[in-house]
Amino acid sequence: MNVLILKKPSAFIPIVMSLVALAIVGAQVAVFGVTRQADEGAAAHLWQLLMGLQIPIVAFFAVKWLSRMPRQAFLVLALQICAILAACVPVFLLHL
Fold first, then answer.
1. Would you say residue 12 has pLDDT above 60?
2. Which one of 4, 46, 54, 69 has the lowest number of neighbouring Cβ atoms within 10 Å?
3. How far apart are CA 56 and CA 2, in angstroms?
4. pTM of the prediction?
């Protein structure tokens, strides 16, 4: 069974979602700077949705693929976690 596991939607969709969330943070900072708003804007809500919706997708991936292809699944999970951290770090460091 020689399948490239990263081509599976449950593997790459969370990574893409994290990259989009990171792009939203970058665009928000580039356009408006690092300012605290009285109310969360659309960018904050989009970021929260993208990050929160990854949880069931990553869980589905782990349940389905860890038993079938453990080594490849762990590598993809590590990549997914790195992407999630990359999207979260600017938000926490900049206190957005």
1. yes
2. 4
3. 26
4. 0.90
Q: How far apart are CA 17 and CA 15, in angstroms?
A: 5
Collect all residues with Cβ–Cβ distance below 8 Å to 49 and sequence separation of at least 6: none
Q: How far is CA 20 from CA 16, 39, 40, in A?
A: 6, 22, 18
- Dist. CA 35–CA 54, nearest whole Å: 27
Contacts of 90 (CB under 8 A, 6+ apart): 22, 25, 26, 29, 96
Q: Tell me what the mean pLDDT of segment 4-12 comes to.
A: 92
Mean pLDDT, residues 21-28 = 95
- C-alpha angle 93/23/51, rounded to 5°? 70
Cα 38 → chain centroid = 26
